[in-house]
Every structure is written in structure tokens, then in C-alpha cells.
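Q: For a teaching session next week I want to show students how multiple molecules come together into a single three-dimensional assembly. I've collected the sequence lines for a complex. Could you give me the predicted C-alpha cells for the whole thing so I can convert them for display?
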Amino acid sequence: MAQRTVTVAAEVGLHARPAALFVQAAAKASGDVTVAKSGGDPVNAKSILAVLGLDVRHGEEIVLTAADDTVLDALADLARSAE
Amino acid sequence: MTSPDLHGTPVSPGIGYGPVLTLAAAVPVPPEGERHTGDADAELARATAALAATADTLDARGEQAGGPARDVLAAQALMARDPSLADDVAARIRKGSAAPRAVYDAFGAFRDLLASAGEYLAGRVADLDDVRDRTIADLLGVPMPGVPEGADPFVLAARDLAPADTALLDPARVLAFVTEQGGPTSHTAIIARAMGVPAVVACPGAADLATGTLVLVDGATGLVRPDPDPAEAERARAAGLALRAAAAETTGPGRTSDGREVPLLANVGGPKDVPKAVENGAQGVGLYRTEFLFLDRATAPSDDEQVEAYARVLNAFPGGKVVVRVLDAGADKPLAFLPAPDTEPNPALGVRGARMLERHPDVLDGQLRALARAASGASAKLAVMAPMITDADETRRFVAACRAAGLDGEAGVMVEVPAAALRAADLAAEADFFSIGTNDLTQYACAADREVGALNRLQDPWRPAVLDLVALTASGAGGKSVGVCGEAAADPVLACVLVGLGVTSLSMGAASLPLVRVALARHTYDQCVRAAAAARAATTPETARTAARAELPATAELGL
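A: Of course. Below is the structure for the complete assembly, covering every listed component.
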């Protein structure tokens, strides 16, 4: 499993549209994909409810875990996108 | 019998008038402990199909609606397709739960998770509840929650509205939204603004309005009036439409139709009020009340805390002007660490405002130094003013305190005490500007305590005596700027009169800016001067208003 730490750039944090785009991207991956706040328990990145429940705010770090780097690249790009 | 008026939070301006449509009854809660007949696979297939159908419907509605509603509905569709939710539903059905109850309980677990997080997520709880209800309605074969098709134009009333309820509404069919729950960031508010439909939220009693009741909804004031006088309602509605059109096409800095500049500024009580001020085109801040930093605490706020709060407002208006009023304590705003010297028989006439600060120079100096620090890093022009100034001596001492604290911007005083208005020239020799607080000026001119409701009749800034004091202040200012930051500036007709009296800028609650901008833009400076003269020639507030309107022709056309 590969792991990546990124900072969430969107003003609204990992909520609303950024959260939806993130979950949709995770859902395309074949294996397990998780997301956690730094030091927190990982949750299923394909679950919008779990991701919203993390309540990740603008500027917070998240830790992504997936089977391969391609998935991580896509998710990291979304997290870093300021949209 | 006429029902009493309802009051809520106005979140989308405009006037709506028409029959109430109350949203269909809620989807029933499946009975607790309800079990399926034994075929778990079939039961699970039913639940999965209902979730999928709900997701598809939400997606389809989103595509059809477009705009901001599409994102909201797409997020709801994702909830219906959530794998963690599906796992939870499946586990409950395998343990014997009937599909509707399994869906209800699984949603409940996630609902608790979202509801326990911050304010932003509280809005998603309504979205999640809507997904749950749609799924359960599908399973039970009961009508979907939401607005029935094909009804006449209506005022939509509900406890709360889900995005799916509002997304497909034709703005031409919806006269207004009124909800019992919700706040400025709720979907009702967001979608109402996007649709350009008036809305009042957090309005107790809204859900109890009977379908068919005629109501008048004012999205600028939050008033919801059942069974209004039909002529009143028709006038309000027609005027609301005309005003809305006029406000939308009038933008930019405040000025009369012949081009005389009248800066339009916002009254703010802290950084939280800034976005609305910017959204409504404020050119700066004319009154930054700093009491919020000091209320409900035993000691004065720290220097850093103050600097941060001031800088946040200053930075929102790069190149603009921000007028900060130093702490206005006493009378109706007592502070724990600034007690009045004795029990005052009449606090409004007691130690308050600048009088209080002169007894606590350390508090004033601390605030002025924090303001100087905040201003040094900002491009906005900081001006500072003192409340409750009576004479030139107090003015001189305040301006000297500002300079001593390193404030190099304008230092001015509020004119609220009739003595200050009558001798404005004395004060103008010491201060850089005046800001007239019409609320207190009216209370002191008419000797009518603002806190005493029985004296409402006397607390009217249209009183010719108050207009005289404004005129005296303006003429005594000797060319220095004279703002008005009381409620008077928010009245579009009175705003024109104030300009005619010699007032050079107007500051008000952000929501009032568009209409004041329109009223000024529709009249020449000469018309404002004539309206001011006509109002001063009257003997009562009512006749003053009527006389002023007669000189301001666009007010009739716009229903102001």
C-alpha cells in the first residue's frame, strides 16, 4: 500500500463540491482507498458520509492510502486544488 | 380572525404575496423493531433498488436543474450510493430488520456523525434526511416529499426545505419561501438567493400556516403577515417588483442622479458582518461598533485579540475607509470591568460613551494603540471616533489621545447630544469629522428614552426638530465631512433628505444599501435640498415625510 500526506487547499475544506469530486475519484479505484486526518483513524475514501464526517477544514493535512500511486496522484491533486 | 404577524431572519430580499402552500406530510417513520419475513436476500434487493432509484432521481433532478442545485443534488446522490451506508443497511437486514427500518437506522447512525460536527455539516443533515425519506417513501410506496406539480403561484412554507424540494421549482411559481428552521447558510437561503425569490427562515410558526392562507412576506425585514389588507398587499407587491428591478440595475458608488458623490458605508458589529457589506456594495465602513470585543467578559480583551479583530475589517476594504467607534459602554451596554460610578437614576443621561472612557484612560489608550497597530499594516484608511461627545473640550481631549497613541488618520466625534449639534462649529475646530448618531440624537432631542416603548411616537428621526439639529451640525462643520450612521440613513427617503441637509456620507446595515443607492440615484442634489427644506417646514414627522416625498418623485413610483 502507498501513502501520501497532503494539505487541503479548498476554502470550504473537504466539504461540498470538493468532497464530492474527491469521493467520486476514489470510487473509480479498484482496491481499498482510505483517508484520515493526521493522527486520526482512516475512513473509507469512497464514502461521502465518512469523508464529510471527518470534517476536514481548509489548510488541514490528510493522509491518503491506496494500492497504487496513480490513485494517490489523482486524489492528492484534488485535495490540493483550491476550487 | 386575523392571525398575528410572524417574524424570522430575512435571507433573500424582496416582497412576496400569495397563498401559502405547506409541504406534504412527512414520510412516516418505519416502526422500531419491524422485521422482514425471512428472505434476507429479497429484502436486501428491495433496499438496494430503492437506494439506487433514489440516487438516479436525485442525479436526474440535478441535471435538469443545473446551477448550484446540481452540485447539491449530486452530493445527495452520492449519499444514496454510499458504500458504508449500503454495508450498514445490509448488516441490519441480515440480522432480520425489515428494509424500511434498516434504511432508517443506517441513516440515523450517519446522521448522528454529521450532526455532532460543526455548523457547516448541520446543513448536510437536512440533505441526508431528505435522501432517507425518499428512499423510505420508495420502499413504502407513499408519495415523495416535496412540492406537488402544477399548483398556482404560492408562498412555500415548511419546517425546512431540502434541495430536492426546491431545485425544480419554477421561480415564476414561487412567490416566497418561509421556513421554521434554517439559517443564512441553509439551502433554503442559498437557493432562494440564486432563484431571486424572497425568503424568511428561522421563522417560528411558519410550518403552522394553513395552506391557502394569504401571506405577505418581506425578505428585507423578516416580516411574514397573514391575511394582510389586500390593498396594502398589492401595493407592497408591485413596489417590491419595481424596486427589485431598480436595485439590480443600480450599482457602484453612491451618488445622486446629477453625479454628486455620497459614499455609502456599512455599519458592522465585527468581522462576521463584513461579507454582507461587501456583497451589498459598501464603499467602506461608517460605523464599526467595537463593543462585541468587550461584552460578557471580566477583563478588557488583549492587545493581540483587538488588533486581529480590527485588521480583519480593515483588510476587507483595501483603499476604502473604515470608521471605528471606540468602546461605547454604559447606559444600555453595561460592562463588567467598567462599572458605572453609582447607581444611576437615569443611565441614558449618565456616565456612558466618552464620559466612561475618560474615567478609564487605560482602556481607551489600549484600544487606540491596538487600532494604530492594526492600521499600520492595512491599506484601508482608518478613522476613529468617540461616542457621546458634548463639547469642544471633550473633543480636544479625545483627538489628543488618538494622536498620543500614534493614530495619524482622521479623529472625529459622534454628534448625538443636542448640545454638540447646537455648537457644532466649536467641535469642528477640534475634530476632523462628524458622524451623527440619529437614534441617540432623537432620544435626547425629544427627551424620550429609547428603551421605553410607550414613547415610540417621539423616537422618530423624521421629527423636524431632529432634522433641524442635523442641519445645524452640517452647517457648523465648516466643510468637514458629516456622516449619518443611525437608522435614519437606512430609510431611502430620509437618506435623500439627509443629503439635502448637508450630510456627506451615509452608513447603515448592509441590507439597506441597495435601496438607499437607488433612491439617491433617482434624484438630483437639488431635489434632495428641496425635500429637506420641505421636511423642515413641516410640523410633524408624518407631514415632514409627505412633504419630502412630494419633492422626490421617484419614491412614489418605487413605493418607498
